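Good morning C.,

I know you're traveling, so I'll keep this short. The sequence:
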Amino acid sequence: MLDWIATATGARAARRLEHVQRLWGGYGEVFRVALDGGVAPTAIVKCVQPPAHARATASDRRKRHSYDVETAFYRDRAPRCDETCRVAKLYASRVTDDRWLLVLEDLDAAGFTGRRDDAHGAAMTACLRWLARFHARFIGEPCEELGTYWHLATRLDELSAIADPALRSAAPILDAQLRAARFQTILHGDPKEANFCFTRDGSAVAAVDFQYTGRGAGIRDVAYLLHGHGDPRAHLDTYFHHLGRPDVEPEWRTLFPIAVRDFERFLAGWRP
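The tokens, ready to paste straight into the viewer:
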């Protein structure tokens, strides 16, 4: 693996430096490498190899597809993201039948060294600004990928686990209202605070983990990010200010409570 990384990045050699994190469900790991004479001094490697016990399950199929989605995002759409919606550069990728390798820019080295599980103040503003500029860039873009990690079509097991019959019955109606939105964009799909890398002062962010990116109304990302943050009105004003699309704002504001309820539908089945 290290020899391939070196060759793919034009380095004399690649050396493993440190483990960064395990992937959800035992699907691999993220680690940092040093590149001797390569495109950058260091890089981040996302190495995905599904565990044998997870095969042939709905969850496994969803996860496997999500890594195809992420690879496609970094290859085809990440180059169109500028400093206002910063993402890591893709240096190289390789996909085989049972392994995904992504060699990515080290965002720590680019100044995004901070990690937060609960963003407030300037840090929340930075996340909302990132989402707004990302959504604005891709409004109207054709996209057939997943479109949020909780969307109904891939969460039928969770739907059947919902105890509240009214919410269970409402689920397809909520989903249909969101899918029928006139204005659609490309969603991040999993925009929790842990998927943003912050500058030291929290005033700017870069985003990671694009496994569940796909087509949808941008307000779905916002509803997820703001879950548990109290009164959303000021945050929505911030988001729409940076979105800069007064033609889109009325529809997406109207859809916000629908998106909130759709996310609550997922939670009710995921953690009943």
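Safe travels,
E.
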